[in-house]
Amino acid sequence: MHHASEILLTLFLVFVAAQVGAEIAQRLKLPGVVGEIAAGCVIGPSLLGWISPDQTLPGTPLDVLAEIGVVLLLFSVGLETRLEDLKKVGKVAFLVGVLGVLIPFAMGGAWAHGSGFAWSNALFIAAAFVATSAGITARVLQELGALQRVESKVILGAAVIDDILAMLLLGVVVSLQEGQGFEPFKLLAVLGSAIGFIVLVGLGGARVMRWNSGWLEKPHSAHSPLAIVLAICLGLAWLSTLLGLAAIIGAFLAGMIASETRQQHTLETQTQPLLALLTPFFFVITGSKIDLAQLASPEAAWTLAIVTVIAIVSKFAGGWLGSLALGRNAAAIVGFGMVPRGEVGVVVASLGLAAGVFSDRIYAIIVAMSLLTAMVTPPVLAWMLKRYPAGGTVNPPAGG
Amino acid sequence: MHHASEILLTLFLVFVAAQVGAEIAQRLKLPGVVGEIAAGCVIGPSLLGWISPDQTLPGTPLDVLAEIGVVLLLFSVGLETRLEDLKKVGKVAFLVGVLGVLIPFAMGGAWAHGSGFAWSNALFIAAAFVATSAGITARVLQELGALQRVESKVILGAAVIDDILAMLLLGVVVSLQEGQGFEPFKLLAVLGSAIGFIVLVGLGGARVMRWNSGWLEKPHSAHSPLAIVLAICLGLAWLSTLLGLAAIIGAFLAGMIASETRQQHTLETQTQPLLALLTPFFFVITGSKIDLAQLASPEAAWTLAIVTVIAIVSKFAGGWLGSLALGRNAAAIVGFGMVPRGEVGVVVASLGLAAGVFSDRIYAIIVAMSLLTAMVTPPVLAWMLKRYPAGGTVNPPAGG
Q: Total domain count for chain B?
């Protein structure tokens, strides 16, 4: 009984902190997600200590709830995304994805090498500059009702490309470490299977659902279409991780497939309570990982500032250059939408720490950078989206 | 990444197994919950081994998801329960609760002592015969749309009384073990605080909500009334465990309070997707704990059969005698509705094992008994509810 008591208290505290944080943020005209991340920082080990670092390690209940939360979030974003719309922005999204990986990788590597790291280690650090965390941007776009804007489609499409490339880069830099063999054919196989998975599931699944979704209502269960679609979501999230992609890619694909069904509207309504319960865990736990003590020394704070600026500028540059065809304003939104690293940067940093490539200090700085980019993005993006109204339809170029 | 992959696969397997099990059960005209428990038994360690026993220990992600699932289930049952209705059946429910604890305790103790256990140990074993698990019955009543029947109100009211008494009895039997002092004043304090909590929260909360629930809509959040009510649910579930009660008592109270708000109908609709996602974890994991290997020897099977029959007959007798005022048919439904021990019996057995009172064999038998009663109840209860139509309103006596 005692154990149940402890975990229920933690769930209660995390959930209430998220609500309070979101409420304060919204009263300050900021996106709610900023408040949820800040609430996590406040109740986390850095300040109040209501959540300990042990409680959010991979595989703990809070970590799993957070994972389910972000999986459901990207599922719901997928539900609002039509394959047709993504296809229309395909070329721009591809360019954004590629440039948004190459520029941060180059700038991050240059900085790390310039700071005294050997090239093999510098490239590992550079890999932590690369991967965009779509969750944070997606939540802001959803909160502001902007998911139908052309910039949103580009960002979501680019996030998929970004994730594939980031996974490949990580494979390369890991193999460049001592004791690891560089296996180009293996990497090509990984690339092929990831692309094959996305194309097959995305195109094939969407076609099946568009053709006939009556079978979703065949089962006797009262929750029938929702339960089947959630099962598909969990299954594709798992398959994604199996292929080395982020779980949220599979969840997004599942949502996109489900958006082709005629039950799409009901599913969207039914997904909302799931988001209300579970996504707060993701954002609060993300925030709880910000280690404020690392900012205490002026030197560390200075390094963090430089790293964060490089991370923001390089990603923005990639997204902006890639989407200039949409006009400058839209390109700025796309560029900033790609900025947050969130939990993906944290994962790469953890791998680097485990591999002995990162010192504790550089680890803490990379984690703080990942989360700072996540904190900075929502208010800036919200401001941009209001300042530059939608250019109309999802047909690029939308003018500038 | 690898860890995330593993847990996502488990979530996927558990969720799909629940859907398949429920579907098969419903096609066989059985309640879906039977199929979910059976699915857990099939994918659990006894048969397929897709879930290992380690994965469902207290505090693991699956255990926490199961706990959240059953908390939400009782919350949703509370949402369909008016305090006024419970008050009307108060006396009958009290009698059912008291007799439903005393008779199983006496019969269980007599059997254990007769089987050669010293009285102090026999009474501990007897305590495992006592506590009803409201989750399973509640789910059957909900599935069959029978929550508004007078028998359902009696069962739910009695389950609250039952839980208080079971907690006290457990306190007594633990204190009777060697090395523990028997402290009647401490037990009285425990009893007082549990009753005080329930009365204060139930009556006070319902009054506040009936008086004004407009404040639930004050926050800016899109999920506002639901999120606040879920926070209350988690908070009361935690407080319950703090006072030694089951978490589901607090969740039920939270639902009952929320049923007094004018947003009750919306909340009910919004809770459904949460149940669809999370309750399967509770039932599948309950089922996965059935250790079929223990039934392999004829002797163990025979003991299990006797224990299970005693457990069913004694609980049925208590419920039946207590609610005879409602008529024989209604009393039969109430009696059988109180039969499932489910996870509560498992918890008592685990305590007994940890305290060195239970051998591995008696532990396995008590666990199997708890789960067998959980398996047997749904089909019998469903059959009874169909055979004996509702006696009309919630006003007892409803005739017979």
A: 1
